[in-house]
Amino acid sequence: MSKSPVKIMDTTFRDAHQSLHATRMKLEDIVPIAEKMDQVGFHSLEVWGGATFDSCLRFLREDPWERLRTIRSLVKNTKLQMLLRGQNLVGYRHYADDVVEKFVEKTIENGIDILRIFDALNDLRNMEKSIQATRKYGGTVEAAFCYTIGPIYTIDYFVELAKKLRDMGAHIICIKDMAGLLDPYTAYELVARLKSEIDLPIHLHTHDTAGLAVATTIKAIEAGVDIVDTAISTMAGGTSQPPLETVCHILKDTERDPKFNMELLDEIADYFYEVRKKYKALESEYLGPDPKVIVYQVPGGMLSNLVNQLREQNALHRIKEVMEEIPRVREDFGFPPLVTPSSQIVGTQATLNVLTGERYKMVTTETKNYFKGLYGKPPVAVNEEVRKKILGEEEFITCRPADLLEPELEKAKAEIKDKAPTEEDLLSYTLFPKVYLEYLEAKEKGIKEEIVPVKKEEVKPSTSLAPTEFVINLYGESYHVKVGGKGHKVDGKRPYFLYVNNQLVEVIVEPLQEIVPSEEGKVEIKPKESVRPRASEPGDITSPMPGTVVKIKVKKGDKISAGDTVVIVEAMKMENEIHAPIDGTVDEIFVKEGDMVNPDEVMIRVK
Ligand code: MN
Q1: Is the pLDDT of residue 506 over 60?
Q2: Are the C-beta atoms of 257 and 249 separated by less than 8 Å?
Q3: pLDDT-based confidence at 512, cuts 50/70/90?
Q4: CA atoms 178, 181, 183, 187: torsion sign
Q5: Residue 431 Cα, ligand 1 centroid: separation in angstroms?
Q6: Pair 264, 253: CB distance under 8 Å
Q7: What is the whole-number distance in angstroms between the Cα of residue 16 and the centre of ligand 1?
Q8: What separation in Å is there between the alpha carbon of 223 and the centre of ligand 1?
Q9: CA of 207 to the centre of ligand 1 (A)
Q10: What's the gap in Å between 47 CA and the centre of ligand 1?
C-alpha cells in the first residue's frame, strides 16, 4: 500500500464548472488565479476537454486553443490535463483517424501534458487511436474506464478492463465515476484490487452528486489510490467534485497528507466565492446531495434533463413511468454506462416508449444508429427482438466504427479555405463546422457577453421599464416567475433565463410577426393562428409530441407505403423519424422545414 502523500488533480477549471455551471466559466475568471493555482503543488490541473471546447466556441465565443495557450503561459510548474472522449475527441460523434491524430498532436503542442481518454461504452477499440497518438506525440496516457452499476458490473469486470487498458499502453489508470455512483466500500475494494494486480498509478474521479464523494475519496486513499480529483471548496460539492480543503483536513498529519499551504487554499477559495456569484443564473436551485441518482442509477444531469423534457411535453406527471422504463431500455441496449451520449439516448428513448404508449414504436435517429453499431460495441449483446423491430432488414456493423470513416481534414480544408488560417482553426471547424462559423461571425461583430444576470438591487422600480418578478395565474394555478438574466442573440433568437416557481428555465424568444403596437407605446402580442387542420383521417400524419420539423422526405404526389419515413421532427433535442400510417399518395403537405408543430396538427396528409 502506498504510504506517500496522495496526489491531487484540481478540476476547478474544467469539470467543476462543467458540472455546476453548464461549462460556462470564462477565461477572464481563470487568468487572475492561475498563477496561485500553480503554487499549490497539485499533481495536475484539469483545464480543457470534455465540454469546454464546444462551450468556448458556442457560448463564450472564445477560441479554445487560445484558452489553452493562455493557461499554459501562466501555469509553469503544474501539469495540465484534459478529458478526451476517445474517438469522439471533444465532440459528440466519431471522427476519422486523421482528425484524431492531428487533434492529439496539436493538443500536446499547445500545452496539455496528460490526456484522460475514455469511451462511453467502454469499447476499447474507440480508444486505440487516441492512445497511440498520445504516446506518439509524447503525452501521458491516462486511460479511463467508465464506472457504473448494473447486473454485469462486478469488481472483476473492471479489473479486467483496466488490465486491457494497461496492455494498450496506459501510463495511468483512471476510475471514471462520472455519475457519482461509486460508494466508499466498493471504492476501497476496487482500488485495492487494482493496486494489487496492476503496476500503474491509479487515479480516482468521482462526483459528489449523492453526497458520497468525500467518503469515497478517503476510502480510496486508504486502499492506496495514487491520485484523486477534488475542486476548491467554493466550486465543489453537489454535482461537482469533493472539496479539496475538506479532504486535506481529514488527511492532516497522516502519511497521505498532501501538506498543502492551507492559507493559499483559503485565498483561492475566497476568489472563487466571488466568481461563482457571476454564474448563479446557471446554477440549480437545490445544491444539496441527491441520493436519488443511486436509487435510479442515472446521472444527476440526466435526471434534470428528463424533468425538463417531460415538462416541455406537458407530461411531468409521467416521470415515474419513465424512471421505471429506463432500466428496461438500458437492458435492451446491452447495459451501457450512462454518460454522454448514451445517457441522453437511453433517457429520450425511455420517454418516447412511455409517451407513445408502445415500446420502440418511435425511435430517435440516435437509437437507430446505436443499434446499427455506429457508437461501438455495447458491454453485452443488445436485445435482438428490439434490434429487429428498429432496424427491420437493415444491416448493422460489428467493426470499429471509425474503420468506416474516410479521412476528413483535407475535405474540411477545401470547404473552409482561409477562414481557418491555422491547423488549430481547421480542427475547430472540422469538429464543429456550424458552431465554428457562428463563432467567426460573432467575433467579427464583437459579440462576447452571454449571460447578464440581473441582481435584484440593480433593479430600481422607479426607473426600470418593466417588472422582473410576477405571479401568473393560469387556469386556477399560480406561478411565481422571476427574470434571471438574458443571453446574447443567435440567429435573431434571444434566450432568457427565468425562474418559474424557483426552477430555472431557458426561454428562447423568437420575433413574433403578430406583435401589434397600439396606443401609448403598448404592444399586443397575438398568438399565431394555426394554419394546419386537426387530424381526422387515417392518412393524417402528426407528431406525437411538440417539436420542430427538420426534414421532409416526400413531395406532393409521391407514392408511399405504410412505414416509410416521411418527415423528421426534432423533439427533446433528438431527431425522431415519423412514418406513414397507411399506403397511398402524398395529398398535401402543411409544414415546411423549420416549422414548430403540435401533436394534433396534420403535417402531411396521405390519401
Ligand atoms: Mn466528471
Answers
A1: yes
A2: no
A3: very low
A4: negative
A5: 21
A6: no
A7: 8
A8: 21
A9: 6
A10: 13
Q: Sorting pLDDT into bands at 50, 70 and 90, what band is 475?
A: very low
Q: Hey, what's the cell of 288? A: 444539496
- Of 488, 544, 85, 603, give the one whose Cα is nearest residue 352: 544
Q: Please state, in angstroms and rounded to a whole number, the distance separating the CA atoms of residues 141 and 139.
A: 6
Q: Which helix (H) or strand (E) holds 8?
A: strand 7-10
* pTM metric for this prediction: 0.79
| Distance between Cα 294 and ligand 1 center (Å) | 16
Question: How far is residue 309's CA from residue 322's CA, in Å, rounded to a whole number?
Answer: 11
pLDDT (mean) for 451-470:
44
| Chain segment 355-393, per-residue pLDDT in tens | 989 999 999 989 999 999 999 999 999 999 999 999 999
The predicted model gives 553-563 an average pLDDT of: 90
* Domains along the sequence of the chain with CATH: 7-282 (3.20.20.70), 409-444 (no CATH), 469-486+489-527 (no CATH), 540-606 (2.40.50.100)
Beta bridge partners of 565: 579
On the question of pLDDT at 522 being above 60, the answer is: no
Distance 229 CA to ligand 1 centre (A): 9
Cα of 559 to ligand 1 centre, how many Å?
50
Angle at which helix 423-431 crosses helix 409-416, to 10 degrees, equals 100
**Taking every pair of C-alpha atoms in the chain, what is the biggest distance, in angstroms?**
80
Euclidean distance between CA atoms 459 and 461, whole angstroms = 6
Q: What is the CA radius of gyration of the chain?
A: 25
Report CA(108)–ligand 1 centroid distance (Å): 21
CA of 276 from ligand 1 middle (Å) equals 19
Ligand 1 midpoint to CA 240 (Å) = 8
Q: How far is CA 447 from the centre of its chain?
A: 24
Distance from Cα 535 to the centre of ligand 1, integer Å: 46
What is the amino acid identity at position 161? L
**Backbone torsions φ then ψ of 497, nearest 5 degrees:** -110, 120
Highest mean pLDDT: which range of 200-209, 284-293, 481-490: 200-209
Q: Sorting pLDDT into bands at 50, 70 and 90, what band is 218?
A: very high
Q: For the chain, what is the mean pLDDT?
A: 88
Q: Are 197 and 161 in contact (CB under 8 A)?
A: no
- List the shell of residues around ion ligand 1, using CB closer than 5 Å: 15, 178
